[in-house]
Amino acid sequence: MSQPEPNVDEVVRSIAEETGTPTETVSRMYADTLAEFRHGARVFDYVPLFAAKKVRNELRHKLHHKH
Length: 67
Fold this sequence. Notes:
This is DUF3562 domain-containing protein. This protein is an all-alpha fold. The protein is 69% helix and 0% strand.
């Protein structure tokens, strides 16, 4: 049984708020990362989760290295 797809708008909004990044930027990064992860994936259940985690971590990393 597969996992339900998360609401993309909610995921993007959450990451944008957490990282102080414009939603347009987060949306683009999330879509690109999702496409990258889906390419060649055999199991898709957790791909959206992994994509959100990667985008969140990348933006947090950039935020911490700005200071």
